[in-house]
Amino acid sequence: AALPVAAQADATISGSVTVKYVKGAVTNTEALKITSSEVLANGMTATASMNVLTGTSGKASLAGDFGTITAGTIDDDAAFQAGDVAGVVGDTSGTTTTNTTTDGIHYAGTFADLTFAAQRNASTTQASATYDFNGLTLGAGWADGDARAAVAAHSTVSHATGAPVYTAVALVANAAGVNADMTVMGASYSFGDLTVSVGKASTADRSVATAKYSTTVDAITLTASASSKATTAGYAASSVSAAYTMDGITLTAKSAKSGTTGVNSNSLTAKYVSGDLTITANDDSAFTAALDLGNADLTLARSGKSATTAPSTTSVTYKVAF
User: What gap in Å lies between CA 281 and CA 303, rounded to an integer?
Assistant: First the structure.
């Protein structure tokens, strides 16, 4: 039965269609999302969202003075990572830009200066706590197992017998991040332009100390960071960069040393912004020109010569969002 008019929440529909042309081939990517939020009579806020085209990505949450409870599709290591204030455990997804997700329930709430987070999904239970005191943040996190999606059984029906046939679905390939029964503890302190942190995961053979510094003087921004060795076989990582901006043009030079391989690398990037047009290029021959047309974006891009083992490719992408 339909809800009474007074109980119905407004829904927001958003999405996009992206068409990409590269190497003579055209690919389409579609996205459609429905989100609804309602302030309840008791002051709490109920929110629900779903990605219609993927089908399995949806969640519902309830927020109030007690915090926020979310059930459905959640970040697979969010509760643990909330306590890793020193950033010594990598994201389970293996990237810094994309989170892997799973189905579960997550809670986060703050009481005075103490913040808690906890979650349960098919493969792990996680919890964390952080405490902030005059710029000093203390944190701890715990997980009882691998946060990656557990090996699942996908069933199909045998045409011969009518019985279900199960096929195992492998774990996410990345082996970093929250990949075992583990804990993490750390502290971070910021004063002015300098932030220092130290932390240790139970799965690591040593603690890691990191210092980061960033300042802007006129048109120049300087950023530097250094950290101790994460493992006995690893290397002390470091990086320093300088960015100069004038009349819409930003030049950035960076030198870095990998904490995994100990290899030094240098890069130079240029960015130009004029109205709705943004152009970027680097010393690896990568190039991007993006034109913002409001709800539409047109992008011309060329990959760098060392971006992959394959030759550089040129692509044209047109995206319309609503």
Answer: 10
Q: For residues 96-123, b (16+ Cβ closer than 10 Å) or e, as one string?
A: eeeebbbbbebbbbeeeeebbbbbbbeb
**DSSP category for residue 23:** T
Token pair belonging to 29: 């990517």
Contact by Cβ (8 Å): 79, 92? no
Structure tokens at 113: 């200066």
pLDDT score for 65: 94
d(CA 36, CA 32): 14
Asked whether the whole model's pTM tops 0.85, one would answer no
pLDDT for the residue 296: 96
* Tokens, residue 255: 């030198």
| CA dihedral sign of residues 186, 187, 193, 194 | negative
CB-side exposure of 279: number of CA atoms within 13 Å?
6
CA distance 72 to 94: 22
* Residue with token string 């709800």: 295
Task: Quote the CA–CA distance of 306 and 50 in Å, as a whole number.
Answer: 38
Nearest to 290 by CA among 282, 281, 201, 97: 281
Could you tell me the two tokens for 199?
């932390």
Q: Looking at 63-77, 144-158, 304-318, which range is the least confident one? A: 144-158
Report whether 177 contacts 168 (CB < 8 A): no
Decide if 204 contacts 222 (C-beta within 8 A).
no
Cα separation of 19 and 209, whole Å? 45
- Residue 178 has which token pair? 């929250």
Q: Tell me if 84 sits within 8 A of 139, measured CB to CB.
A: yes
Quote the DSSP letter at residue 7.
Answer: G
**How far is Cα 23 from Cα 2, in angstroms, rounded to an integer?**
50
Place of tokens 């060329």: 302
DSSP state of 100: -
